[in-house]
Amino acid sequence: MRALGRGSVSSFLKVILDVFHVVLWIGVAVATVGVVVALLLSFRPDFIASHIDIDSLNVEGPWLGPAAAALFLIGDAYLAGGIIVVGRLRSIFKTLIDGDPFHPENARRLRVIGAALAILELGRYAVASLAHVVFHGAIHVSGGVSLTTWFAVLVIFVLAEVFREGARLRGDAELTI
Q1: In whole angstroms, what is the distance from residue 104 CA to residue 89 CA?
Q2: Tens digits of per-residue pLDDT, 66-80?
């Protein structure tokens, strides 16, 4: 099976990315509604449970609404990062389907993907640190360094430079008579 062009593996993967892109947008919409609903319900605590138990953490009283809103907001941020990554991947796969893998924009798209993944990973560290400080270790949020993630970020940045060089060489070849 071919890797590039119409009817190739690239076009199949692009369809999967298109579907996932829609699912991520639906997730953002649901999480955003969750933020609003949680904040609105915090004004009427009699509409929600009197307390929530997570692991050894017990959240009760006026903090239920804001705590739920914060969780939805964190989910929104991660989904937004996913939309950025999947959106750039969709654009890259479009160029692969068109038979133009060394499109000049692909290097920039890969750099944005690498930066988004790095920011999401740093955000995970921030959320874990904040959870540890706020909840005094009562709940566990993984905040350890993921070597696999950082390795992937570095590989993506290297691939971005490979694509940039490929686009430059292709541009030079087009100028050659």
Answers
A1: 14
A2: 777 888 899 999 999
DSSP 40-58: HHTT-GGGS-SEEEETTEE
Token digits for 135?
């909840």
Residue-wise pLDDT for 137-169, tens only, equals 656 666 678 899 999 999 999 999 999 999 888
3-class SS at 143?
coil
Task: State both tokens at 170.
Answer: 């292709």
- Which phi and psi angles does 59 have, rounded to 5°? -105, 130
Phi then psi dihedrals of residue 94, to 5 deg? -60, -40
pTM metric for this prediction: 0.81
The string of DSSP codes covering 97-116 is: HTT-TT-HHHHHHHHHHHHH
